[in-house]
Amino acid sequence: MFVITLSVIKADIGGYVGHSSMHPDLEAKATECMASAHKSGVLIDYHVTKCGDDLQLIMTHKLGEDNDRIHKLAWDTFVDCTNVAKSLKLYGAGQDLLSDSYSGNVKGMGPGVAEMEIDERESEPVMIYMADKTSSGAWNLPLYKMFADPFNTIGLVISEKMHDGYAFEIHDVKENKKIILNAPEEIYDMLIFMGAPSRYAVKAVFHRPSNEIAAVSSTQKLSLIAGKYVGKDDPVCIVRCQGKFPAVGEVLEPFAFPQLVEGWMRGSHHGPLMPVALHDANPSRFDGPPRVIAAGFQLADGKLVGPVDMFDDPSFDPARDKANVMGEYMRRHGPFEPHRLPLEEMEYTTMPQVMKKLADRFGDL
Ligand code: 13P
Ligand code: 13P
Ligand code: MG
Ligand code: MG
After folding, report:
1. Residue 364 annotated to the active site
2. 263 close to 137: Cβ distance less than 8 angstroms
3. What's the half-sphere exposure (Cβ side, CA atoms, 13 Å) at 182?
4. Which of 21, 41, 134, 165 might form a disulfide with 263, Cβ 3.0–4.6 angstroms?
5. Residue 176 has what pLDDT?
6. Which atom of ligand 2 is nearest to the CA of 133?
7. Largest Cα–Cα separation, the chain
8. What is the pTM of this model?
9. What is the Å distance from ligand 1's center to 247 Cα?
10. How far apart are CA 66 and CA 232, in angstroms?
């Protein structure tokens, strides 16, 4: 038995240029921090990458989930990188660090966190999804397809190990509540919630009946954490593959459909989620359209063997083409819904000020 924890902790600590990408000095600083933690023995292995303007720390260790040393390491790394970002006057330096000082756990302080403690299997393929210009509910549709839809995942039908289905832990990010629902017998109930991703987001998926963790996301709601808009919760998600979990191809397949997600321009527009190679995760047109990347690893005694850049594959070209066509179609709506989010979802909204200014000009019908 080899129990390890895979932690992915991310934050936007400064964009280059604007909100589009990340300056190489930030990745270099983060790598330096990770290397020193690795040398001191805290980390078994690490990989630093970025998606758009979000810095991604992928770490393996023996300390378990929600561990103070790991969370502090991530926090300190983000602070060091923020200092680099400030020296370069990068855009929104320290955007996701909502507190001036660290208080024991990065959850609720701005950074996004997805962690799973696992007993590493004989072979342990994992997929790490990272997205920019969207929010954690964006994983609902792909997770549903991977773990509940036999038209996506034939393993649900023909693999004995998968035939009992999966349990979905769904969070109500507005009321801070959670519910666990079982696929396949409760899919109609599940979809009531999962189909409303601005409020309900899948936090985790478990294999039935073993109850082993299959997937975990960084579900949280930054705008609610801060009490006002400060940044978006550009999300990450870890998915285990093969054996009692869907095959690698089955966990990638949902992204061949560029679903409409929220988070484009000022966090206030719907747009298609475009699956791209790592080097194409620099959203620029109208600060988008939203991007998702997939880094595939094999774990070997906690060592991160990889990544393979899974969307760097011409078979995803049609999805990218479609996303561009859909993006153009949505853009033509300009400031109108459904391109613009509904009023209550608008993140950088000026609505309260406009209402205040015009209050005495509103009369009864
Ligand atoms: P496993 O059942 O060994 O995960 O293999 C299934 C597969 O890879 C088919 O694509
Ligand atoms: P980020 O959340 O990626 O910083 O994007 C902010 C935004 O809305 C840019 O238009
Ligand atoms: Mg940003
Ligand atoms: Mg971002």
Report:
1. no
2. no
3. 8
4. 134
5. 84
6. 3
7. 71
8. 0.95
9. 5
10. 22
